[in-house]
Amino acid sequence: MKYDLHIHLPQAISDDVLTAYEIAIRNSGLKVGGFVIHYTEKYGKRNFKNLVDVIETLGVKSIAGVEIYYPSTTVPSDAEYTLVHFRDIIIDHDAILKISKLNNPIIAHPLSYNSKFTSEAMRILKKYGITVEYNSAHISPEMHNFYRTLKAYGVEISFGSDAHTPYEICAGFEQAKEFITPVDELGVMKKIL
User: Fold this and answer.
1) For a tag site, which of 63, 140, 156, 169 has the least CB within 10 Å?
2) Cα–Cα distances in Å, from 65 out to 34, 71, 79, 153?
3) How many structural domains comprise the chain?
4) Three-state DSSP class for residue 148
5) pLDDT at position 43, please?
């Protein structure tokens, strides 16, 4: 089943843009969509409410989440999952422990933005129920070894296109199938669906 848990919608969405998303969703074969906003405490609550209202009209099983910037752990209580954006950091045991307290955490675009994992952090992801995203917008052949290692540790890997336009939805899904966990087997989704 085709899914994408990292789709951004514009904060202000016109009927024409909404129609473009509806068409792109149909054409992509998307069955489950995870729609997110970049969340900050100052603007996030209002924008998150708008997101929830819009995704209910898209004609696909939709869940609403937020993308936060670590070390922030402020999220709306009604967010169904949290994408965690790391930047300029070595992700260690303490970081994993901190994000494990979030609602259904998924590490977004791992190894991007000058982020690296300690080997201990990689080994404990499963223990703390943290999913790691296969982000097709930030993929390189070297990252495939990273995903193979995660799979060997039993870590769940979700798919996210990091779409910021309707035409990027599910981009790279077929190439990711070797690495990703089916949507109905993701612990994050079992709690939501």
Assistant:
1) 140
2) 7, 17, 5, 26
3) 1
4) helix
5) 67
Which residue's structure tokens are 């009209």?
57
| Residue 73 contacts residue 98 (beta carbons within 8 Å) | yes
Q: Report residue 162 as tokens.
A: 């990091």
pLDDT < 70 regions, the chain: 43, 191-193
Identify whether 71 is preceded by a cis peptide bond (ω within 30 of 0). Answer: yes
Query: What is the pLDDT at residue 56?
Result: 87
| pTM given for the model | 0.94
Q: Which residue segment(s) compose the domain that 70 sits in?
A: 3-192
Torsion sign (Cα): 184, 158, 43, 96 = positive
Distance between CA atoms of 42 and 167, rounded to whole angstroms? 29
Q: What is the CATH number of the domain that holds 89?
A: 3.20.20.140
